[in-house]
Amino acid sequence: MIFGGLQKTTLVDYPGKVAATVFTVGCNFYCPYCHNPELVLPELIQKHPQISEEEVINFLTKRKGLLEGLCITGGEPTLHSDLISFLEKVKSLDYFIKLDSNGSQPKVLKEIIEKKLVDYLAMDIKTSLEKYHLVTLNQVPKENIQESISLIKNSGFDYEFRTTVAPEIVTEEDIWSIVDLIKPARAYFLQTFKGIKTLDPRFATLSGLPEEKLKQIITQIKPFFKECGLR
Ligand code: SF4
Question: From atom 7 of ligand 1, which residue's Cα is the shortest distance away?
């Protein structure tokens, strides 16, 4: 695999573990608020420095005992046909693995779960199913999203769902539709929108729901989840 980034240490990406994070390149969604355009837009990917799988594996081999886990995020990691073999290599080094996904490839998630190649799954729930076309541009069937949610909930691994409360994409009503879609579940987090750098530059000028409102919503939706909070 080729990666677009390696963060050598993180205390926040993998709950409870000291980890590193790798970023895969390419995505089949187009979330206008995405803050990693260099990992999504083909013209920017070409100009972005690349890191080989060998470099990542060498790094992990040297850091054995110092790092506990590896987070794999994107872009969208499940688009890469060599993800499975990469996961196998990382597992053979005895690392815990957290995989972030947009849930568009349930077949890949199923294989990963069946082969027990991860320890933690995190899926972004972008918005209510009715509005998913705003981020998929109708390129991914909604059924894939539903299937991935179900696979993750029944995987037996630790998992979380999370939603970036982006302007225009996620309203209070959408949050309630998402809750209906995923409840009951182990963990659900709302993430505040930060319009610093966005795929669609227009979104950098917009504001999402205020933090106070999000805290209020969390109080109401908390009973449906073991863990629920604002990030
Ligand atoms: S936010 Fe995630 S799913 Fe959306 S375009 Fe960016 S990398 Fe892809």
Answer: 75
**What is the arrangement of strands in the sheet containing 158-165, beginning at the earlier edge strand?**
51-52, 2-10, 19-24, 69-73, 96-101, 120-124, 158-165, 185-192, 225-230
- Out of 23, 29, 99, mutate this one to test ligand 1's pocket (max ligand atoms within 8 Å of CB): namely 29
What string of pLDDT tens digits covers the 231 residues of the chain? 999 999 999 999 999 999 999 999 999 999 999 999 999 999 999 999 999 999 999 999 999 999 999 999 999 999 999 999 999 999 999 999 999 999 999 999 999 999 999 999 999 999 999 999 999 998 999 999 999 999 999 999 999 999 999 999 999 999 999 999 999 999 999 999 988 899 999 999 999 899 999 999 999 999 999 999 999
Which CATH code, of 3.90.1580.10, 3.40.640.10, 3.40.630.30, 3.20.20.70, is assigned to 2-230? 3.20.20.70
For the chain, give every domain's residue range.
Answer: 2-230
